[in-house]
Amino acid sequence: MKPKMPIHLRVLVDRQGSEYVAHCLEINLVSTGPTIDAVTSDMKDLIEAYIEYALENDNMDNFWRPAPPEVWQKLGEVEAKVNACHYSRITETMPQKRAPYRELEVDTFCHATV
Predict the structure, then answer these.
(1) What is the pLDDT of residues 15-44, one digit of tens each?
(2) What counts of helices (H) and strands (E) characterise the chain?
């Protein structure tokens, strides 16, 4: 059995107008959707695809691409508020047989309105 690969990523989910925007801070991925569930599901798929691509193409040197400073600042503002972030952990099974890890653990999603 392949081992688990814990990756700690922070995803800020913020309502902007009529949509929710999810921004993964450590790897600078962005997703939008009409609901928190939709944008969270889309972000999980994006993260999984991003990791699979990096592993399959031996491109881990370029994996970590931090979000712009203003996004990190927004996360800090949300985390400074009492009970502003609701964190969760996701575990995804990697479908590709070539991936060196069987499961991917990603935490945390910060669902908040700034």
Answers:
(1) 889 999 999 999 999 999 999 889 888 988
(2) 2, 5
